[in-house]
Structure formats: C-alpha cells, structure tokens
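Worked Example 4.2. Consider the chain below.
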Amino acid sequence: MADNTLSPWVPSVIAIADDHQFVCEFLSDLCQEKWPDATIYQVSDFAGMLELVQGVAIDLMVIDYLMPGGDGGEAISAVLGLRPKTKIIVFSGAISAAEVAHVLTAGIAAYVSKAAGAESLEKVIDLVVLGETHVPRSVVVEFLDGQPSLGLNAGEGAEIMRDLSAREQILLNELAKGLPNKVIAGKMRLSESTVKQAMRGLFRKLRVKNRTQAVVAALRLGIVAMEDGAHQQA
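Applying the procedure from the previous section yields the following structure tokens:
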C-alpha cells in the first residue's frame, strides 16, 4: 500500500509585507497562532522587504504586490534571487494577468486575491506548508486568454501527447483538477515520492518549471480540459 502521509513543513522565520498596518497585524497574529515559536517580521514597503531579506533568511513571506516604493514583480524576483528557498504567497488586491504570470514564473508558491478573504488565504497557507502551490482558476482562464504558452506552441501538442506515458497523462489530468499530491497518490495507488518524481519528468517534457505552468501549457495545447467550477491548486 502506498504511504501517502504528508509531513507539514514548519516555517521558523516569517515576514509579512503590507502597507496597511491592520493587515500586517492580522496576518502576523494568524501566523503566530499557527506557529507560536516562529519569529515574525513586518515591513510596509518594498525597500524594507528587500533590506530584510538581505540580512535574514525568511522561510515564508506573505506579500502585498501593490505596496508603495517599487514594482511588485521586480521586488519579488529580487527576493527570490537572494533567497530562492523562501516560499512566497502574494496576497493582494486585483492585479493583471501579466503581473500574475510574472510572479508565478519567478517562482512564488501562491497567489490569493484579497477579495477572496482571510479564510481562503489560511487554506492556501496550509497548502503551501504541505509543499503545494496555488493559483485560482480565474487566473488560469486569464492565462489562456492572453498569456504566452510558456515555451510551447500549438503545433507541438500532438507530439508531446504521444511522448507522454499513460501514467503521465493520468497525472496531468489530476493536476488539472487541482488535486494535491496526497490525493493524487491515493487515486493512482502510488507513494507521494513516486508522484513527485513522475511530476519532474512531466515538467521536463512540457518544458515548464512547476504545476501551475504544466496545467496552463496542457490547457493551451488541448491536452487536458478544465472542468467548469474547478478550483485550481497548481
């Protein structure tokens, strides 16, 4: 029987970056309640965020993309350039599909609109500490409407489909449903480590870096179809 047990990663150093003090305090309290022993920093602009990561190794950051003092995409890319192991959740007001595409490609763990509320953010935080990434279905739809296909073109779809093994085709369809690794492993009767290994091979064939990009590329190529109402955890 497959061992599908997940061991949550526990962040010990957390940063909250938001120019609204109330939001900073609320998110800090939320994280402190989850991880009482964690050290939590608060910053209110991009300059402060970059100064912080230059001196401190941050495990988890919750960032408002729309803070004053710089470009959100450039700042997040700079943070990941300095601290590539930092897991970043962008919790922000509405931003464009191009901006979401930029930070997802840079390597953030998740994007959550502030309109979705604190409850949604807390669920996404739980996913991230289990090693998942997340992007809302609405954002994927925006990708399909106007964003590049992440290194692929439509003429390559049939060739890639022929190159995918039966297990990889099943895995890709499960990813498109937004299922976390633990559930996929159970459905496919595999260990979670085997699923992760299979994903790496799938990503290489699709020429992508993560689950989000794999699903977007597969949708653009017609390899999978997004079901109405699906909740994308890419």
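The domain at 13-134 is CATH 3.40.50.2300 (Rossmann fold). The mean pLDDT is 81. Compare this with Example 4.1 before moving on.
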